TrEMBL record:
Keyword annotations of the record: Kinase, Phosphoprotein, Transferase, Two-component regulatory system
Superkingdom field: Archaea
Keyword Nuclease: no
Organism: Candidatus Nitrosotalea okcheonensis
Descriptive protein name: histidine kinase
Amino acid sequence: MTTNIVSNKQERVPEICSLDMSVANHDMKTHLSPIKMCVEMLESHVSGPLNEKQERMIGTIHRCVDKLESLIKDISDVYKLELQSLELSKMELNVQSLMNECADLLQPLIVGKSIELKIVGMDGLIYADKNRIEQVIVNLVKNSIDFVPKIDGKITIVVEKDGFSNLLFSVRDNGEGIKSEDLEKIFAKFYRGVSKPSRMYGGSGLGLAICKGIVEAHGGKIWAESGLRNGSLFKFTIPIWVPQSQNVCP
């Protein structure tokens, strides 16, 4: 009898954790929303004009709120991935169209920066969650943006076939690169590396862990290759989608 009670409690742990995270996520967003609304009202000068110092202070608050919103989303994604409760809305996706939309999402991130972003795509189909694959690509590119040179930074995204069953997505940059001791740990939660640039930009250390979880949830693999001062190269695979009509033998 005792064994059954313990077993039932253990079976409900993921459900309880998921519920607790949903409540915490909702509460944090609820408290952030009015702060963001007030900041946006001040930025639009609803309460009167601001001087230069006040503009800078409001801008700082706005950026901090945006970072907190991003952190809340990342923590929620990590919990869902750990509990294997991340819902994927898979559909047939044309890779060329997907990369065109990614380009639109990435352009605002490099506006005003001396960064050349190049996307080399190919036609093909995958069966995947469009928003989640875009999230992986954007996360990898944002990571590169932080580490490429301030002048003549270069980021290249390439999509190509990897054998007969996978598409290989690569994100390469000309930044500082990754130390060999970081390569083995870089996809771990909250790991930010031991090198100076990693500490300088102070990310949450969740972005790459989320990328790994999303890719693996699609049946793919993700890894990094690098040499210090030779730039970074991140690669991930997603299975190719073959429509059923093409599988039917004549």
